[in-house]
Amino acid sequence: MTADRETTIWRNARLATFVKGAPGLGVVEPGAIVAHGRRIVFAGLEHDARRARNSARIVDCEGRWITPGLIDCHTHLVYAGSRAAEFEARLAGASYEDIARAGGGIASTVRATRAASEDELVRQSLPRLDALLAEGVTTVEIKSGYGLDLATERKMLRAARRLAEGRRVEVRATFLGAHALPPEFAENRAGYVAEVADAMLPALAAEGLVDAVDGFCEGVAFSRQEMRRVFVRAKSLGLPVKLHAEQLSNSGGAALAAEFGALSAEHLEYASEEDAAAMARAGVVATLAPGAFYMLRETKVPPIDLFRRYGVPMAVSTDCNPGTSPMTSLLLALNMAATLFRLTVEECLAGITLNAARALGLEASAGSLEPGKWADLAIWDIERPAELVYRLGFNPLHARVWRGR
Ligand code: DI6
Ligand code: FE
Hints:
The protein is of the alpha/beta class and 405 residues long. The chain has helices spanning 84-91, 96-101, 106-115, 118-133, 150-166, 189-206, 224-236, 253-259, 273-282, 290-295, 304-310, 330-341, 345-351, 354-359, 387-390, and strands at 7-16, 27-36, 39-45, 57-60, 65-68, 70-72, 137-143, 170-178, 212-217, 242-245, 264-267, 285-288, 314-316, 377-380, 397-401. The chain has an eight-stranded parallel β-sheet. Strands 1, 2, 3, 4, 5, 14 and 15 form a seven-stranded mixed β-sheet that branches. Helix 6 runs parallel beside helix 7 (224-236). The longest helix has 18 residues, at 189-206. The structure holds 3-[(4S)-2,5-dioxoimidazolidin-4-yl]propanoic acid and fe (iii) ion. Residues 105-106, 109, 179, 216, 244, 247, 292, 321-324 line the site of 3-[(4S)-2,5-dioxoimidazolidin-4-yl]propanoic acid.
């Protein structure tokens, strides 16, 4: 029997299934999961899994908890260089804007990323990916956006694909050409937006490097009209969109995301009630990034109550990036989402499983423990699921399973 055809049972476990419609975490106890090859064929009460026993490899989980493999649905983890010196300058009083004006900030990461070879980019990014995997992540989104020219955006997206080849993880690559205005186009905004929409995006999509299209809709980045231009092109290429929206001010990004049926709108500190209502109608996931909130010492909390009231699904992400969220722990992001944004444990955990899958358009294949989905599991040495949110800087992962292994 080849490994791909093998049947495996994880038994004697407590399951947090996150099956849609089940109350709370969808707990099943004592539970078992049966995988055939790469997919789950059964998740439920251990008693009902008995039939599969004879022909299977059996893993005794000794009462441990099993959740779906974790999903970090918003990262910028491929980049070169470091912004630690900038962090020191900010501690000494410089603002994010001061640093940007002096040629630092995103522009400094763009310089370092342009200068790095593709191999070097993979080499520098791998430890960040590995840190996420060590906490049970089995799916990760990676955005481009530190190239801002065709060659470097391509290099970043290719590096993201290569990371997926080197590790047992699913990587979704998002084109973020509309992240910042590159210096060559400082006097020509329209020219850069046209370059993104009409040159870079079609070329990179044709090379199979783009799973979704994102932008930074903000006073300091791109306007709603500029983003519309990029989204129209993405839609014409059949690509899903998502948007950094209302992070530093209300700039109309969430409404635009809703209008285009985006998978997600991200950050959202300054989102309004109308934004929440529009996102709910369009099924847009609110992807929260508490690490950036924390690093920027933001005080405006995203309107969590409105998201609850209107039924906007919430996801939680690291937003791993060198400037505003140099974080490679999704569990730490959970603690921040709970402590800073007052998400419940249930909301936190749904935010890195089922709702994160939705934010990537992967809800049919990931994010919950149910037949037909990938056998992506995280097995935990914990007594209750709240421990995944409650502890700071402790990793209780016992084992990570990707595609049944
Ligand atoms: N929002 C952010 O917080 C980051 N990008 C974005 O669109 C900032 C990225 C950086 O400073 O490098
Ligand atoms: Fe981001």
